[in-house]
């Protein structure tokens, strides 16, 4: 992998580079726990005040933190992977809001994860929290799901 900056990063100020590193670090910290069966990283990263969520396996948007917290509880201790590939992260930010987009690849004990991920951050009481999260399959038309599989 090249050490060259992506085109958009070439225009970042020092402050924007620092913010990008911080937000990507928050996300990777949550993912590090996630793939060890620990959902607490996202439980603390996602906003309790204002949160929405779209997932490839849910038919409707989740509109509140309590619902997503129950979902996290249902998979806590059940999803594991030896590694993951965090590709093409990009931060786009203005004042107290930022969007992180990236692609996530991992072979877990439950499913092969290939997601486009969108995390919308907002500053809450001097901390960055995700107020909206979307996890959508990369090229879902290529996915082959067993008829009776539980997909996380």
Give a written overview of the molecule.
The protein is α+β, with helices and mostly antiparallel strands. The protein has a single domain, classed as Nuclear Transport Factor 2, Chain: A, CATH 3.10.450.50. It contains 3 helices and 5 strands; from the N terminus they run ααβαββββ. A hairpin with a 2-residue loop joins strand 2 and strand 3.
Topology:
Elements: H1 14-34, H2 40-45, E1 52-55, H3 65-75, E2 85-94, E3 97-107, E4 112-124, E5 127-137
Parallel strand pairs: 1-5
Antiparallel strand pairs: 2-3, 3-4, 4-5
Short key terms for the protein model shown above:
five-stranded mixed beta sheet; 5 strands; 152 residues; 3 helices; Nuclear Transport Factor 2, Chain: A; alpha+beta; single chain
Shape: globular
**Straight-line N-to-C gap:** 30 Å
What is the percent of helical residues? 25-40%
Mean pLDDT: 89
Physical arrangement of strands within the biggest beta sheet: 1-5-4-3-2
Kindly estimate the percentage of residues that lie in beta strands according to DSSP: 25-35%
Q: What is the helix/strand order?
A: HHEHEEEE
CATH names the topology as Nuclear Transport Factor 2, Chain: A
Largest sheet: 5 strands, mixed
Number of beta strands: 5
Low confidence ranges: none
CATH class: Alpha Beta
Structural class: alpha+beta
CATH architecture: Roll
A few lines on this structure:
The protein is an alpha+beta fold and 152 residues long.
């Amino acid at each position: 992998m090249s050490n060259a900056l992506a085109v958009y990063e070439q225009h970042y100020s020092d402050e924007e580079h620092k913010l990008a590193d911080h937000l990507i670090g928050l996300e990777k910290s949550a993912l590090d726990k996630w793939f060890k069966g620990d959902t607490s990283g996202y439980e603390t990263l996602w906003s309790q005040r204002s949160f929405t969520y779209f997932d490839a396996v849910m038919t409707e948007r989740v509109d509140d933190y309590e619902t997503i917290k129950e979902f996290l509880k249902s998979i806590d201790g059940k999803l594991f992977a030896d590694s993951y590939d965090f590709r093409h992260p990009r931060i786009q930010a203005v004042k107290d809001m930022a969007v992180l987009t990236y692609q996530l690849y991992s072979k877990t004990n439950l499913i092969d994860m290939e997601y486009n991920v969108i995390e919308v951050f907002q500053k809450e009481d001097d901390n960055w929290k995700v107020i909206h999260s979307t996890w959508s399959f990369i090229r879902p038309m290529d996915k082959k799901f067993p008829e009776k599989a539980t997909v996380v």
